Amino acid sequence: MNFSEPFKLSGLLARFSPDGQCLASCVQHRLVVRDVSSLQVRQLYTCLDQIQYIEWSSDSLFILCAMYKRGIVQVWSLEQPDWHCKIDEGSAGLVASCWSPDGRHILNTTEFHLRITVWSLCTKSVSYIKYPKACQQGVVFTKDGRYMAVAERRDCKDFISIFVCSNWQLLRHFDTETQDLFGIEWAPNGCVLAAWDSCLEYKLLLYSLDGRLLSSYRAYEWPLGIKSVAWSPSSQFLAIGSFDEKVRILNHVTWKKITEFEHPATIASKKTTVYKEVEKSPSVETEKLSFSRTRALAGSAFSTQSKYEISQVPVSLQYIKPVADRANPKVGVGMLAFSADNCFLATKNDNSPNAVWIWDVRRLKLLVVLEQLCPVQCVRWEPRRPRLALCTASARLCLWAPGGCVAVQLPREGDIQIMSLSWHCSGDSMVLLSKDNFCVCYLEREEV
């Protein structure tokens, strides 16, 4: 495993292009585009203000840079560096910006969610979508890019509008049986739209493309309800993380619960493997890690390292009792992620911030628990194989695969405390992000 030298970064803004050839990163008001293979700078762009959000177009030809404080979006072209585009929302302000699936339209959400403006880069035309709802996830596209669903709020009632992305014509408009719609999410096959209520009421609704209510699900009534929702890549399963520290799995045939996964503070089953991260002193074994001069830092000095040990059950995990009289309590399953092959589900219970749970979806049982030294910040599955990477705001990168897990120490000179990470589309590398720096981690072929 090799690491590049560290590069400056701001706002945790570094993104691989969809085609995997470029890596864009931000340093204050500058946008730097590098070649992935060599990390040489291909383009350097200067924006009008500090960049707060970046996003590649689907064809990797354009990059969107949003400056929310000034209500401005700037678009840059990789093929024509001299071409540039500026969208100024003026007094309406700007709180969100994103690409349409075709990579030729930009959707800007104004302040107070008064409207969504659709800007065309080809015809320079403008369209408006009124009454978008201010919720966690209110604008979603189908995976094939044909349809867009928008959560709306009109006359104190929730609605959903479905648009055709090719011409932005309204396809369906229907009201939802929710008190306070909190989020919507398309199934990967684009046939079913999931909508769920705020945490004050446990309610999940499933709609067809034409707006018919296919099914509704409610696990209980009075306590806090749904905290997270995730579809499996095959669209066969829908996982619901709740504030009661359980994950419920619905099937795509009857939309009924087929099982539920609990997150107890003590792991007692002998069929579950518990990997516990423990500190160890630097040893000669670290010399086995090779760092090329072109991609890695000079020297091989390491700080305090860690390794995984298999704990004997029963194992008591670190458990934090939430403060009941404060808003947004750290309780419940706040993270769900299916592996690309549909075989595994990774979860995180906020009551146990240091632990990641990995479930075998085929056998519907708990397979592995990873207990870290520090709270887990980010968990990402590799896009092609069942391999999980996670970080804990430390200089260690942790990887799990069905064959085992490993904690890798970054070179000390990098001084990178990993806050977030993302995989390259090939799965051969990933970008590791800290507050002020980022580096690229390259996995050797035999490791892949």
UniProtKB/TrEMBL annotation:
GO cellular component, one term: microtubule organizing center
InterPro entries for the chain: Centrosome-WD_assoc, WD40/YVTN_repeat-like_dom_sf, WD40_rpt
Lineage top rank: taxon: Eukaryota
SUPFAM superfamilies the UniProt entry points to: Tricorn protease domain 2
Protein name (record): WRP73 protein
Source organism: Onychorhynchus coronatus
Gene (UniProt): Wrap73
